[in-house]
Structure formats: C-alpha cells, structure tokens
Amino acid sequence: MSMTVRGLTRAATAGLVAAAALTAAAHSAEAADTLGSAAAGQGRYFGTAVAANHLGEADYTATLDREFSSVTPENEMKWDATEPSRGTFTFGSADRIVDHAQSQGMDVRGHTLVWHSQLPSWVGSLGASDLRTAMNAHINGLMGHYKGEIHSWDVVNEAFQDGGSGARRSSPFQDKLGNGFIEEAFRTARAADPAAKLCYNDYNTDGVNAKSNAVYDMVEDFKSRGVPIDCVGFQSHFNSNSPVPSDYRQNLQRFADLGVDVQITELDVEGSGSAQAADYTKVVEACLAVSRCTGMTVWGVTDKYSWRSGGTPLLFDGNYQEKPAHDAVLSALGGSGDPGDPGDPGDGTLSCTATYTRTADWSSGYNGQVTITAGDEPISSWTATVTLPAQQSVSSLWNGTPTRSGNVMTVRPSWNGTLAAGASTSFGFTVAKNGSDAAPAVGTCAAS
Known about the structure:
Blueprint: E1 2-4, H1 14-29, H2 35-41, E2 45-50, H3 58-67, E3 70-73, H4 79-82, E4 88-90, H5 92-103, E5 107-115, H6 121-124, H7 128-145, E6 152-157, H8 172-177, H9 180-192, E7 197-202, H10 210-225, E8 231-234, E9 237-238, H11 248-256, E10 261-269, H12 273-289, E11 293-298, H13 324-332, E12 352-362, E13 365-374, E14 382-387, E15 393-398, E16 401-405, E17 408-412, E18 424-432, E19 441-442, E20 446-447
Parallel strand pairs: 2-3, 2-11, 3-5, 5-6, 6-7, 7-8, 8-10, 9-10, 10-11
Antiparallel strand pairs: 1-4, 12-13, 13-18, 14-17, 14-19, 14-20, 15-18, 16-17
Helix pairs in contact: 1-5, 7-9, 11-12, 12-13
C-alpha cells in the first residue's frame, strides 16, 4: 500500500485482536519447551528479526510462530522502505509483518526511525531547516501509522563512531542538525506515541569501552534533564574477533542503573557446536542476571537467510533444525525440549510442508512455485493456500487444481497427491503484478 500520511493510525479489526488474544493465551498455557515460552517464564521476551518476503515459506513461518514471542522487521520499517519519496509513505511489507505478529500474539519492536544508513537520496540533499522538518515528519508518519501497536522503537540507531574517540558519527543529521538531533528525535517520538518504549540502539557497545562510555554519558544526561528515553539496545553481533566481552553483564547493569531498560536487539554469534552454544549461554545468563534486561532478539530465524550466513550465527540451521546453541539457550532460560512434536518420526501423524520460490521474474509478472513435501508418513492428498497481494492476479496454474476466493487460492493436487514419506511434488503459477512486486503468502500445508 502507498499513501501520503500525516498521523494516520492503522485500524485494528476486532477479529484480529481476538485472534491475537487467543493465541497469546494458548502460548501462556504451553510448557516452557520453546524459546518464547521459556523466556516468558523468566519475565522476558525472546524475539527474532523477520523479513516479509520469507513469510510465504512454510518452514520459516512454522519455526517463527512456534519459537518466538517478539518480532523486529529486518528492513521493512527503515526510511528507504517506508518513505522513499518525501511525504509518501509505503507500509505494505511492514504491515504484513505486524499483522502476522499480531495474529500470533507476538510483540513488535520498531526498527528504526532515524539512522544514517538506508536513507533515500532525497534526505541527504536537504538543508538543515528542511531536514529537521523531514525528520520529525518521518517520525510522526511512521509512529502514527503504528500507534499503540509497537512495544519498543529504536528511535535513533548507531549515532556514535567506532574506535577510541567516543565521537558522534558523521551523518546528514549530525552534520546539519548537530548533537541536538538525538534529543529532538526522542521528544518527537514521545509525542507521537506516548505508550511505546523509546530506545537508543548501537553495536560494539556490549562491553565497557570508549563508544559505550559515550552512549552511557548521553543516557545519563538525558535522564538528568527529563529527555524521554526508556531503553538502550545492545546489538550483540559476536564472532571470534569480537567475542562476548567479559564485562558484558556489568555493562548491561550500569546502563540499567541509570533507570532505563536494556534489550539485546540483534544477537548472533558466528561459529558452531559447543563453542557457539557457550557464547549464547553467556548472553542469556547476563540478561537474566540484570532485572531490567527485558528481552533478547536474535537477528534472524535461520542461518540460510542471515546477513552473516557464511558464519552460521543463528539458532536454526539452513534446514530449520535446532542447533546445539538453541538447546543451550532453551536450557539457560529454564526450558526443556519436547520430543513429541507432531512432525517427529514414528508418531503416525500425517503432515506436509509447503515452500514457496519465485522461479522467473519480469517487469509485469512472475512465475511462482510451491513445493509440497510429505512428513514422516506417506500421504494420499494435500491442500495448500496461496494468498496474493490485492493488486496481483493469477493468469495460469499447473500441476494443481485451484479454488479461488478473493485473493486467496486454495490448491489441491490434480494427479500428484500421493507422496511417500519425505517425497516432494510441486505446482506452479503465473502472476500479473499489476504494480505490486510483493511475494504471495503460502499457508500451512494440510495432508490426508
């Protein structure tokens, strides 16, 4: 969707609220056998970054919905995605993530309002007065659209330099508006949504160093003068050259002692096996030791889509299998694995998965393919749903029999319903974009 907005608020439907409430109640009743439920038992959330274009992949959404209690849009709320042209806001991809999270009873972190990166070119070309107006209008437009729906916002992201200077980073905001731009952004954000937690977020601030000291001094100053800041986000991207610092917990605690919440916002740890598991454990134990550490977010669901995929930094591998790091995090949170999941071998449950890929693309359309894979038992038939963005339409479909209702297409096998355990088949379709390049959403596969 694309529209020009000034303070437009999304209207939540009663059905959506009811569904979220029911899902949240179901989650709270579960045993602590998932990351989200185990963290909830410790009074915290456990979230993940989410990309809208992966929500059509059945394994992705199944893992997301089962394991996590909070989501952060990976790129969909950044300035270039939400206001590519001045005054014209586009919320389609971000809305899709927020709607999915709400349907599962998950919280949403907003990321990010003011950042030097992923800016559309028009922002950098503005003079100081125009830039101040545009920054405040962007905050109001984005926060106004999601007012009441976002738990915490990263108001300003990565405003300090690396290295030993503790200086501010050069950016259009810093260079043209000066040091006061961060305070102004927070004051504007408080007025835009008084209920949302307002965070400053940065990387390489996980231990005590020149950069974290500079952020600490800023937060201390803000708190002393009544500038509205509620939380500080620690990205926590770790690898062998930048390990979990020995003073990680102490650093979190000193910020908490200033009267703000602390959040682990973009956690990933390159590596594998027991070493990776041990580092994840250190992070979780540090958060649990600080009463104002309210939650942790890993930066992605699966290694295959990680921005550092070559370093296999996440809790699920490229096939969505739990890694030793997952088990270590679950244990550190006080949870325990449940061997009785529906897809476990030998339980007699008929199941299948549906995975979407785009196989061809051109200016006015594309070809999509959905691969159906049987679970641990043979199946004789399957059903999958494909929900298209409102503007798009299907011009042809093969290897399946469709039934259409609005923009939802329910597909059943034409000749390819019988599958051996673990075997796959597929159906494909051609779509007319009609101005929208968004990916369709593929629902859960049903087997019989």
